[in-house]
Amino acid sequence: MSVCKMCSVSIAGHRSSLDKTLDVLIKTGVFHPDELKKFYSDISTFTPLREENPYLAMESSLSTILKNSPPADGDFDFSDEQITEYISNASKKGEEIEAAISKAKAELDEKKKYHHIIKHFKGINVDLEDVFACEYTYVSFGMLSKDAYEKFKNNYSKTDIIFYPAHEDSEMCYGVYFAPMQQKEEAKRIFSSLYFEKLPIKGEKGTPLDIAGTLEKQISELEEKLKALSEEQKTHIKDEQEKCSEMLACVLKRKKGFELRKYAALYNDRFIICGWCPSDDSEMLKKEISKIDGDEITLEAIGKETKLSPPVKLKNNPIVRPYEYYVGMYGLPSYKESDPTAFVAITYTLLFGIMFGDLGQGLVLSLVGYLMWKLKKMPLGKILIPCGISSAVFGLIYGSVFGFEELLNPMFHALGFHEKPIEVMKPATTQMIIYGAVGAGAVLVLISIIMNIFSCIKQKKAAHSVFSSNGVAGILFYLSVFSLLFLENAQTFAIPVIIVTLLLMFFCEPLTRLIEKKKPLEKDQSVSDFIMQTFFELFETVLSYVTNTMSFLRVGAFILVHAGMMKVVFTLAEMSSGAPYVIILIIGNALVLCLEALLVGIQVLRLEFYEMFSRFYTGEGEAYVPVCEKETV
Fold first, then answer.
1. pLDDT tens for residues 352-386?
2. Alpha-carbon dihedral sign for residues 327, 330, 333, 337
3. Is the pTM of this model over 0.85?
4. Nearest Cα to 470, choosing from 542, 539, 572?
5. Alpha helical stretches, state H, 291-333
6. Which of 80, 182, 337, 354 is the most exposed place for a label (fewest CB within 10 A)?
7. Residue pLDDT, tens place only, 51-79
């Protein structure tokens, strides 16, 4: 349960072996590339490789042929010429089919639109070619509202302009108007005032009924053609599937290799590339690189005192590993820091169980978490499993099963108890819960400060481990304040300790700088500025001790909230009987489970991040992300 020890890696070789070296680095899957300037003070003699990746276009073309199907598994080797030629041939066939499909779709869409229009004029039993052949009569097909049609009949029926209705529906009237050619503009003005919408009817041979029938036949033929083209496209993809997926796997590997080139640099006819790998994998990497003629590899184990910033790989057992998800949300530990995952696993699981104690709902929550991980691979699901078990354990202590507070009483009596261990809703128990929550908060704050002390010692910050608010001085101050609150005659030793520790915390920075053989104050910082700034910082620090401790009251509050919410559910259920009673209990339990699991999960995470992490953890590490053939989940 720690941060993996890393090795710095420096590989140099002849320029001609660069691609081969990059392939090996990808295949081993343990190399994390990094910038050369982190390893060399002067890189002016190196020439960086800045080239456009030619495999991006290949990947895009192959993915298009495969219709975004995944690449094949395995190690495949095709030359760039083979891949380019294959893409050219396969793409040509695919593009021809795609073009035919697009053309057929466009034609089908056009004919469907025209059929939708012409079917409204089936009532006109006249050859449209003859209609549009009139030399002295203006003809226009279209539609207008039924109200507008009535207005036309009332106001313009005695004119030489005629409107012939072909079809009416609930709102519109479809038809054609005729006007002498010399009255064309007048007719247009009249029908424009009636909001007549002209429709694109063509002057082709046949009646609208005949044309609609022809269109229906053509639409059917086009649909069959599209179906055949789609089958041809599927067959083409299926025929190319194997070879194309193999080539895509090859291209993806080379694309990664080419992306690695940006980390490499040239000097004369040689290359150099630097990065990191876990110490446990260093010998394997060295062995593989050594197989390449002319390549030289230098590996150096990196200790915690290093000035470099290696990437971080967490090493935890399977029980606490799911909680790396929460640690990552805050930020990975720096290479010099300790991994807090185990601390989070213990405290988060316990606090969650305490706040959401219910045997039945806890077991359901574990089952939900298991399904979330099994079916959707959601990392939160793996966390909910132990949290649900913790809830079930504390629910057993509270004697609560799906809100039934008396259900386990016979079991407790059989075990020799007069009543269940904790009766949440008793006034005396409520007071104990509140005090217990504050006490637990104080203990966790103290543990956080102790963890910070060890972390400072580990990072060789001895002065901070003693004088800072999260060091020895902070612990003594915190304990002294508590002794004043809870111990009689504690003033004799507590007040002097409080005064001394406040002074140590006030002068923490100057004392630290003096120990490091530096000037007490930073450059350009006056004494007055230091006093003013440090006073307010110390005031905020003292206030944080109070707020951090009192924040744990929410732990006790949620114990009572759960019991209270379930009491409301039972009150509503008892207003009815039979099936409604059962339904209300089921729905009520489901609502309480979802709502409280969400709230408790967020509140415990808040306690972790703000009340505990803020005292001992920075989370400024960079994740270890090795280049590898296959992406890991």
1. 999 998 999 999 999 999 999 999 889 999 999 99
2. negative
3. no
4. 542
5. 324-330
6. 182
7. 788 888 888 888 887 776 778 887 788 88
